[in-house]
Design a protein that fits this description.
By secondary structure, the chain is α/β, with parallel strands linked by helices. The protein has one domain. The protein has three helices and seven strands; from the N terminus they run E-E-E-H-H-E-H-E-E-E. It has a seven-stranded mixed sheet with strand order 2-1-3-4-7-6-5, with helices on one face. It is globular, with a radius of gyration of 16 Å. 30% of the residues are buried.
Length: 159
């Protein structure tokens, strides 16, 4: 069983093998014992957080403790946390800064490893640069991913 935290109601994680925690279940309350896949909300941490703050008044980083809870769960139970690349949460929580060229990056005083991937290399229609943070996996067991930049998507034919 894998706990999927901060996921969309009725989404892909509402399937056998997953214990899905959507907004109604409040993933900040997850108390184990399964490894996690965490997708904490990104609007207050992403590159557009300044626009969100200006437009709607939501302060940068003020996500009600969602990222902190996701990080704590990944560190306690093992698993992976996913966020948009260049998320301000990485610096705020002192996570290892991943390299755009690929590979796993660790830090001396951090239990986890970070990586930069582009979801376009996995079939997403956009490049969608993403940072991953993994805990509970020995360095020699970290998976080899599709590193590097995605090819530029070609426009779809119309008509």
């Amino acid at each position: 069983m894998i706990a999927a935290l901060f996921v969309a109601s009725g989404g892909a994680y509402f399937a056998p093998g997953f214990d899905a925690w959507d907004e109604a279940r409040d993933a900040r309350l997850y108390a184990g014992p399964h490894p996690v896949i965490a997708h904490p909300p990104c609007a207050r941490w992403c590159r557009l957080a300044g626009l969100v703050e200006k437009r709607w008044g939501h302060k940068r980083g003020d996500d009600g403790g969602c990222f902190a809870a996701a990080l704590a769960s990944v560190r306690r139970w093992g698993g992976v946390l996913e966020h948009p690349a260049w998320s301000d949460a990485w610096a705020h929580f002192g996570l290892p800064q991943p390299s755009r060229s690929g590979g796993w990056t660790g830090a001396l005083f951090d239990p986890g490893f970070s990586a930069h991937v582009e979801q376009g290399r996995y079939g997403h229609a956009a490049k969608k640069a993403t940072w991953l943070y993994v805990c509970g996996v020995p360095p020699e067991s970290l998976p080899e991913l599709r590193w590097g930049l995605s090819p530029t998507p070609r426009p779809r034919a119309t008509g």
